[in-house]
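Table S2 (continued). Query chain:
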Amino acid sequence: MKNRLILCALLLACAGGRAAADEGMWLIQRLGEVYPQMKRTGLRLPAAAIYDEQGASLAGAVVAVDGGVGTGSMISHEGLMITNHHVAYSDICELSTPEHNYLETGFWAATRDEEIPVKGKTVSFLRRTVDVTEQAQAMIAERKAAGSWGVMSMRRLSADLEKLHAVEGLEAWCVSMWGGRKVYIYYYEIYRDVRLVGTPPVSIGAFGGETDNWSWPQHKGDFTLYRVYADRNGRPADYAADNVPLDPQSVLQVATGGVHDGDYTMVLGFPGRTNRYASSCAIVERERVRNPIVVKNRHDRMDILRRRMERNPKVRMEYSDAFFSLSNFADLALWENRCLHRFGVAEIRREEERAMQRWIEADEARRAEYGSVLADLERGYGARRTAQRHLNYFREAWLGPSEALLVANRVVSYLAKLDRMKRDTLRCGDRDAQAVVNGFSRLERNYDAATDRELLIRMVTNFTDSVPRTMWGEALGRMYDAAGGDAARMAGEAFDASFCSSSERYRAAFAEDRTVAELRSDPLVALAGSVFVQRFTGEVERAEKGSGPRVSPTESLYARALYDFREAQGKAQYPNANSTMRLTYGKVAPLTPSDAVHCDARSTIRGYAEKYDPSRYDFRVDDRMRSLVAAGDWGRWGEKGELYVNFLTDNDITGGNSGSPVLDGRGRLVGLAFDGNRESMAADLYFHPRYARTVCVDIRFVMWVIEHYAGAGRLLDEIAFVK
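Corresponding output:
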């Protein structure tokens, strides 16, 4: 299934006549009270300057990177795009070699010819939006009347609507909001020739690393530059040497005056996912079931990677991207739990649910539609708790930690296909077998056998210690017994004997046709085939069915009830984030995260000298950076003798906003959003208006690095600067 964007336009406001909350991820289609509030708090632009399908606007300069993995901004009429260093992290790691380790040294193209094409990279521009709510609701009613509406029906409806509203040259995506209250089609122009222009070394782009992640103060130069190319007519095209830099419809101007406490800020981007209509039951399950399993297993993996990366620079290059991802999500789960507990999020939601239940019971129609929704959720979540623990252990400790086991899983999937075709031999020359025959490629890039072996041993041990034997399958149980009940020994012996753990052995295994029985006798293939997801999802389904209605559709019904309840109270509402383009507005703001602790809203270059520690990888500062900091020459990027590095705002962001432009009241670029603070880590479920902060890199520091550190001042000639 292809990686799908579900992108949409900005929501600047709620429906008319309601008071707006300061926080929020707003869409453009419903202008009302939010735009006036934005003007009162410092916006100096008309609404059309922010989003306009007929002409240039700020939104036209903001792009989804790789389908919403991150956000980028067009900053020159020669296709120059800026995003976060950590959004580019995978590209930087993939392009690095022992001879040219761009992660460690950085990279700056001296000419256009030196810019590096990035295979598979895309940037997407929003071009049009269409409200298809009435049509969607009519189609739903028709299909329900015909008895053809089921679990996957909304996905099929979206596909049908996309076909009905297809436009040549644009890609259409259908997305529903508020549990189907609104349905939109969004049209995107997707550019596929994207080239790396410049990136600082990790010691600047990710200074502070795992230690400073989700914290404040930070001192990260979290940025990277790409260039978007098009054909001679400015249209999307695959990479070609004669493609030309794109001249975008809109380009952001860069402000040189900096930001100060209380300044208006707004962020445009593609927040990935929030669950702010989730029930208290869902919050409790996240806090007590999912997050502890995520934290334990990912930190176990991080311990292994950290130790091996510190010993071997080659392993560091191969596993830096994997470690970054693990660290990000493990720390998120850890701090999310702390915030959920500290702020009493589940109880906040329960209090609202008690009021909602009284509102439901006050009306016969509401009782008929929503009367049992809370009771059904209580039963469903309670019944599936144990099954969810097993499923989460499968996801965290079995599915994904080991590359060798992933390779074995691919073999198992193809063998299942051969079973369905009633074939007992894998023919290496068959066209549909090539993905399996060439599976050794996963073992030749960013793979270290000794590291993967240790990961497999630790995770298989965690899995067998935590998941009952009834969920293992025959092969795992048999191999476990043969190893004397020693999971570590079993996993190590399986790894050593398997062709799936070595590219050389893998090539040899598929040098000639193999019977299905031969391939299934491989120990890692046997393990992969013994433990499969359907067993775990089936356990969850059976547990839920035994209690009454399924949890997922009941949560959707709950979300609609919560929406209706809040609407009846006159509360402004924005839809959950779902990788659609949003706008959030706020201000530059300091932070008092806890008793007797106060943090300024801006950090300075002094942090590099204060945190410098050559014995700790996260806090290395190379000689060039140290000498520049010591010299104190900030050029035109300083302010009263200081060079500011990062700053805080109270904007509402989440994953996918990484790289989003932070704009001032006149729509000028003042920074890039790259992180949240630890006190905002419950934001997937609950935005705290007092403690949540967005951590941003000051655009002046970005320009100082480009000009003074990288010596790439020629790039600044493309950019429009304003005071």
